[in-house]
Amino acid sequence: MRRLERETHDKLRAVEEALANHSLDRDNIGVSLEALRELVDTDKVFLSSLAQRADGDDLTITRDAAVGCAQTRWRKLTDDFLRGRVVSWTGYDGLHPAPAQRDRVLRSADLAELTHGRSREVETLLYPRLGMGGEDTMRVLVCDGPVLLAWLGIVQPEPTTERQRELLTRLVPAFRRRLVFDRALGASTLTTTALAAALERVQGAAWVLAARGRLLHANAAGQARIDADPSGTRAALEACTAGRGEPRFDIVAIAGPNGDGGHIVIEKVDPAGARNVPDAAARLRLTPAQTRVLERVALGASNATIAAELGVAERTVEAHVTAILVKAQVSSRAALIVQVFRERRTR
């Protein structure tokens, strides 16, 4: 590729830097598309990731960003348009494109030739719905190996140019890196969320520890143990990772992807349950319903879990927990659990 003039080079770097600026709070890829639109001097820029619908063979949009048009309207109209057209309706597989379609920046004429005219359906059937009738397209299917990460393209009233193709081609690797990162981050976040939800269903305190005993996660009961006795609890957990666990702990070793590992440590629950709950209930003058809730709160169960076990609405459990906190004169359920554990030790 030819050498870029300074101003264009700076704009190219701006797009790359925007793509490298990941945000855990929100999907900020729109900033990258804004920078891309300025770089290639175009009218509209779109990015969309696709997946197969749960109820059939059609595609649906799972992620989208748009610059130069109303994004919400564009997504709804495009998603509705995809329904009933199966995975390969435009001449390429929308999930696993053929090699000739991967990572190539193609103009409308190139697409029409490659797909034997089928790509024109997008411009003639969809674009008028979006208020873009008669406009020209340049797009690239950004892929990770055979897997489509996203459809990325520009749309403008005038014909696209070779200069625009050259600039967009330079940016394909940066978009691929960003999309691969986002996919991995999404999977990691989902896994972490699932693990947290699973540990909240554990009847008792539970912790996830890294290879050297560093605490990665604790459920409500586990965090309450740490709050009540920080040094003692951490010493006990470190002993577990060193192979000196006490009989009251169940320890599960887990292997990491790089040969490292960690442990899940679960404190065994007294078969008799939270034995001091009746005394606490009597002291706090709890109702029978509040006592049943306290039994489960003391074991670290979430409101949703308690509601499911008792067969009541979650808002009912929330009301009971609030009433118990008021009677116990504490500000949080963690403090309540600490109080219950502390009473057990002093009996």
Notes on the protein architecture:
The protein contains 13 helices and nine strands. The chain has 347 residues and is α+β, with helices and mostly antiparallel strands. It has three domains: 187 residues, Beta-Lactamase, CATH 3.30.450; 67 residues, no CATH class; 70 residues, Orthogonal Bundle (Arc Repressor Mutant, subunit A), CATH 1.10.10.10. The strands form two sheets. Strands 2-1-5-4-3 form a five-stranded antiparallel β-sheet, sandwiched between helices. A hairpin with a 5-residue loop joins strand 6 and strand 7. Helix 7 packs across helix 8, helix 10 crosses helix 12 and helix 11 crosses helix 12. It is elongated, with a radius of gyration of 28 Å.
